[in-house]
Specification:
40% of the residues lie in helices and 17% in strands. The protein is α/β, with parallel strands linked by helices.
Length: 451
């Protein structure tokens, strides 16, 4: 029976050290109870408590991590079937495939695109995460050389090692060093050898089944060998079969806590289609329906970008608005005579306003006030964008040290706040800006500090 957050809290050391990545023991206990993290993340909890809590509170889909300390990749940790129930935790990893059959030019091109195809949207860097390195020749030296090439050419990529040969995998895993890879390809026939490779390298292993039942049997064998971090490939190589298998695995894990399927899945659109557009279509289905990792044959901007946006939307918490950090944002290289504007930290508002300012070419200071992700009018109505709060934020941000003038431009919808702000900000002049962000360029080009 699952424990409540308060029951778990009573078993914790209550240090509030934050070493688990969560500020307080109470918050940590609540996340453990909700299945959003594991009790083992606390460095001070006893083995007895780990054993007592771990079984009842672990997420139904195990959290699996690999990669380097600087650029870790995390998958799994999921607790629900549908996003509106709670939220989806760890975004589907997008991988590009390179093989020992490829020419150096082909490999270099894929690695170059891995590094180049990166997009910033609403404050989030969108990019592929992984490189899958496949041993197609069975030559240990050639495979290790390719792995080393990938390690040097994609510094922040997580590595998936794919081979049927455990010795080749062991050599490649050793070459990865601290960048712990995912070892792919464990079958019933080679499970013992793959388990040894994974244990020696301290990395997770991926099951390579022929169907769901086969994957379950391999998973059970690896768990019996003492491995806890697994990723499952059911062997499906059509979009229908892959979709069905992902749904079966997630439902079995979430609804019945069926351990052998309680792991993230890996899917291979690169083996299901012959062209990039069809691969992208298949990948889009699997991102939406539970794949932990999706492997593509290549990366092209016109198909990668839509997948990244889909992933961003699906793995954004629907109960929490997207926000940017409260701060002073310099745009176009502002100086001491540049205008000072303020708005809320709702991401959409920030990027629309900052985009218009940037387009105006007018050097400006943009103050972003934390309104918990609410838009301007909603934040004002909720008491989160009041004159006193704005004044406190401006003093704390020390904007006065950056400009000679004392003039603040506020959103046009907050015109009624002008008098209150002038009372709170002694010596400052409050100017009413335009209501629509699209009118900012013309407004800023005509702006001059008050005499």
């Amino acid at each position: 029976m699952a424990l409540t957050g308060i029951q778990i809290l009573k078993m914790l050391p209550k240090k509030n050290c934050g070493e688990c990545g969560i500020p307080t023991c109470l918050a940590f206990a609540m996340k453990v109870a909700a299945g959003q993290t594991e009790i083992g993340e606390c460095p001070y909890v006893s083995d007895e408590v780990k054993e007592q809590i771990g079984e009842a509170s672990a997420p139904p889909i195990r959290t699996v991590k690999f990669g380097s300390a600087e650029h870790p990749f995390t998958t799994g940790g999921e607790t629900c079937l549908f996003r509106h129930e709670k939220r989806f935790e760890n975004p589907t990893g997008l991988a590009v495939l390179v093989t020992t059959d490829m020419s150096d030019a082909d490999v270099d091109g894929r690695l170059a695109r891995f590094n180049a195809l990166r997009y910033e949207r609403v404050g989030v860097m969108l990019k592929a995460d992984l490189v899958a390195v496949k041993d197609t020749k069975g030559n240990a030296a050639a495979y290790t050389a390719l792995v080393q090439k990938v390690l040097g050419g994609a510094a922040d990529a997580g590595i998936i090692l794919m081979s049927d040969n455990a010795d080749n995998l062991a050599a490649a895993a050793k070459a990865c060093g601290d960048r712990k890879p995912l070892v792919y390809g464990a079958t019933l026939g080679n499970a013992d050898a793959f388990a040894k490779v994974a244990k020696d390298a301290g990395c997770p292993v991926a099951v390579k089944g022929g169907n769901v039942d086969d994957a379950v049997a391999i998973s059970e064998k690896l768990m019996a060998a003492g491995l806890k971090d697994l990723i499952i490939d059911t062997g499906a190589r059509t979009v229908r079969a892959a979709l069905e298998d992902n749904v079966i695995a997630r439902r079995a894990a979430v609804k019945t806590r069926y351990k052998p399927l309680g792991f993230p899945t890996i899917a291979f659109p690169c083996e299901m289609a012959g062209d990039a557009l069809m691969e992208a279509m298949i990948a889009s289905v699997l991102i939406a329906k539970y794949a932990g990792i999706v492997v593509l044959s290549d990366l092209q901007g016109d198909v990668l970008f839509p997948l990244l946006l889909e992933r961003l939307n699906i793995f954004t918490d629907p109960q929490r608005p997207m926000v940017v950090q409260q701060d002073i944002y310099p745009i176009n290289g502002p100086g001491e005579n540049s205008p000072v504007l303020i708005t809320c930290n709702f991401s959409l508002t920030y990027f629309i306003v900052s985009g218009e300012i940037e387009g105006s070419k007018v050097p400006s200071w943009l103050l972003i006030k934390d309104t918990e992700g609410l838009s301007v009018l909603t934040a004002w109505a909720a008491g989160k964008f009041g004159a006193d709060m704005i004044a406190q934020f401006m003093k704390k941000a020390e904007i006065e040290s950056k400009v000679k003038h004392r003039e603040l431009i506020i959103p046009g919808y907050l015109a009624s706040m002008k008098g209150e702000l002038e009372e709170e900000l002694a010596g400052w002049t409050i100017t009413i800006g335009p209501r629509e962000a699209g009118h900012l360029p013309a407004f800023l080009k005509e702006w001059k500090p008050a005499a």
